[in-house]
């Protein structure tokens, strides 16, 4: 089941995201706040997944009555928006005042995008429920905006126009989401099946040996054996991420070079 951001009341969601109308704690609950509620909700989602999230579970996590949450958060839809924005705030970013330009993101564009990809992967592995949340209508909160600005600065001044800059960041984040989904599923496979990769293979190998004809599937036989021996598994998420990321960056490099031929860029075009 996919959860969608942007489903809540726009005015309430934005007020909550930007903390423009946070109510004071009620008497008897001096430590209850939007931040504490959101952190408890993230803990529930981290442990049980976004489908298990409910206002009641968050209240139980905090040890308060469910209705007390509504003093601070209008409902689950707005809560999910703030959860996503809060997690975006975990992205390592420059923290000293407003950015002046791409030079604040160290390295050439390729190194910068590679760092962004790895940081996003770590973020999704830490909060796998984010992979079940569609942000096609993103929560326009301060952390998400700051993250987007930071990522864009990685490709600012290298000869791309604004739409191309946005497209490159969308490409990187889309690739990372796909890779993270595979990594999370591989990590969860043992828990859900009760078998390690090695145990799974030994359970299937004897039967496969009886029915599989290498002569009929020669390429699959040759490549599958080589890959299995190299990774000691049917799927190696770490290798898949690294290999794919470099190919994506190669493609971006070719695109930047084509733009440079058409119109020589000003600023940092280094890799």
Automatic annotation (TrEMBL):
HTH tetR-type domain ranges (all copies): 31-91
Stored InterPro entries: Homeodomain-like_sf (IPR009057), HTH-type_TetR-like_transc_reg (IPR050109), HTH_TetR (IPR001647), Repressor_TetR_C (IPR004111), Tet_transcr_reg_TetR-rel_C_sf (IPR036271)
Gene3D superfamilies: Homeodomain-like, Tetracycline Repressor, domain 2
Gene Ontology MF terms in the entry: DNA-binding transcription factor activity; transcription cis-regulatory region binding
GO biological process, alphabetically ordered: negative regulation of DNA-templated transcription
PROSITE patterns to which the protein is assigned, alphabetical: HTH_TETR_2 (PS50977)
Keywords: DNA-binding, Transcription, Transcription regulation
Domain of life, source organism: Bacteria
Keyword Transcription regulation: yes
DNA-binding residue intervals: 54-73
Name of the molecule in the record: TetR family transcriptional regulator
């Amino acid at each position: 089941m996919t959860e969608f951001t942007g489903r809540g009341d726009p005015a309430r969601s934005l007020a909550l995201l930007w903390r423009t109308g946070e109510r004071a704690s009620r008497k008897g609950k001096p430590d209850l706040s939007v931040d504490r509620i959101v952190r408890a909700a993230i803990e529930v989602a981290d442990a049980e997944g976004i489908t298990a999230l409910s206002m009641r579970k968050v209240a139980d996590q905090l040890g308060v009555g469910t209705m007390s949450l509504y003093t601070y958060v209008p409902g689950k839809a707005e809560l999910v928006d703030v959860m996503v924005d809060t997690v975006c705030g975990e992205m390592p970013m420059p923290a000293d005042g407003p950015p002046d330009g791409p030079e604040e993101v160290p390295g050439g564009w390729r190194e910068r995008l590679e760092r962004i990809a790895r940081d996003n992967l770590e973020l999704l592995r830490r909060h796998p429920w984010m992979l079940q949340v569609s942000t096609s209508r993103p929560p326009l909160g301060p952390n998400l905006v700051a993250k987007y600005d930071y990522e864009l600065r990685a490709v600012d001044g290298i000869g791309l126009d604004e739409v191309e800059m946005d497209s490159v960041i969308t490409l990187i984040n889309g690739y990372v989401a796909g890779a993270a989904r595979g990594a999370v599923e591989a990590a969860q496979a043992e828990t859900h099946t009760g078998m390690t990769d090695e145990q799974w293979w030994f359970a299937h190998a004897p039967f496969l040996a009886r029915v599989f004809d290498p002569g009929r599937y020669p390429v699959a036989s040759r490549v599958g054996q080589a890959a299995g021996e190299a990774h000691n598994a049917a799927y190696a998420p770490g290798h898949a991420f690294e290999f794919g990321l470099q190919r994506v960056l190669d493609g971006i490099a070719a695109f930047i070079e084509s733009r440079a031929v058409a119109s020589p860029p000003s600023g940092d075009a280094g890799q």
